[in-house]
Amino acid sequence: MNQQPLSLYLHIPFCQYRCSYCDFNTYTSLGDLKALYADALCQEIQQVGRSAANRYHAETIFFGGGTPSLMSATQIRSIMETIQAHFPLSPQAEVTMECNPETINQDYLRKIRTTGINRLSFGAQSAVGTELQTLGREHSFQTVETAVNTAKQVGFTNYSIDLIYGVPGQTLESWHQSLTAALNLDTPHLSLYCLTIEPGTPMHRWLHNGQIKPPDEDLAADQYELACTLLGDANFIHYEISNWCQPDRPSEHNLAYWRSRDYLGLGAGAHGHVAGTRYHVVKQPRSYIKRMNQEQATPFPFTSAVAGNESLTPDEQMGETMMMGLRLLQEGVQASLFEQRFGRSLTDVYGPTIDELTSWGLLTWHNHGESLRLTENGRFISNQVFHRFL
């Protein structure tokens, strides 16, 4: 039986502190649950692995959070061994762990590297101290430099750095400083995210109380344009709207999302998508652990901890394929793959919409109609373009 490729996302919800902009499913006061949580995560992997009946292999794995690097190396090893027992790893599988720079040291990195982790994602966010304070981060950029250099020393060659622009008080000059500092670390990959102030976060409260000013959309656009220029000059490939990489160094796990491939979401609050079915896991870690200790038989891809699911219609699947695929700036939506998957051509389904967006200079055909991509102008208003397909 041919095994199908699958990506695995594992959510680690623990943090030492909560960043002022964060609305993710994270908790700062539940660190005593880490051992129980690791056991529950292994139970969930076993449960979904049994229902998969050896039909899949793991092509990419991503430990996200939260702060996965708060888990002990022994706990990470147990989780990785459980995955490998139920979802054999592809020989070149990319296995990423998100790390807060202040949570790691040489001994820890050396140990997790032996578990199969081969890529690190560092949440740097800024190289400017005042911006880090605004974002609620407790590290300095010097800590980031130490963490990256330590990772290199123990043998990691694949790593990424996250930065945020559109931060209150940030200028074009300070953004240039952060980009330059990250490039000086010779990182193979950069993820650059425009700050969104979400309801319920401390930053949203500060905005409401007048402690900070609303983000300047024009400045954020200038910052994005500066990043495009600076990273282009450094020979980085702008392969996705928010992601740049050195040649042949993209995030394979995130490519699986953007190419609308199947992935399992495991752990409290995780989301998964397999064969047109979307589901989410219960958010509260204590509830998650309790559910996994009361195991019950469930059909693939569900587990005892799944709190809800929905089956997407063909129209919804096609719309999501357009939204995700158009984020890939060098690749776009491949006409042949779209037709192969849905049995209908791009122009049959979306002809008038494509024609209109093309006439407005927001979309363009490449390679004689083989792929549909955003134009440079389209990148700046990509959400409006995506909305036309949903």
How would you characterize the overall build of this protein?
With 390 residues, this protein is an alpha/beta fold. The chain contains 15 helices and 15 strands. α2 runs parallel beside α3.
Spatial extent as radius of gyration? 21 Å
Global shape: globular
Could you tell me the number of beta strands?
A: 15
Q: Strand pairing plus helix content: what structural class? A: alpha/beta
Question: Averaging pLDDT over every residue, what do you get?
Answer: 96
Question: What number of domains?
Answer: 2
What portion of residues is helical? 40-55%
Q: First CA to last CA: what distance?
A: 36 Å
Q: Main beta sheet, described? A: 9 strands, mixed
What's the CATH architecture of the largest domain?
Alpha-Beta Barrel
How many helices? 15
- What name does the CATH topology of the largest domain carry? TIM Barrel
Low-confidence stretches: none
CATH superfamily membership of the largest domain, which one? Aldolase class I
The SSE order reads EHEHEHEHHEHEHHEEHEEEHEHEHHEEHH
What share of residues are in beta strands? Answer: 15-25%
CATH top level label of the largest domain: Alpha Beta
- Order of the strands making up the biggest sheet: 7-8-6-5-4-3-2-1-9
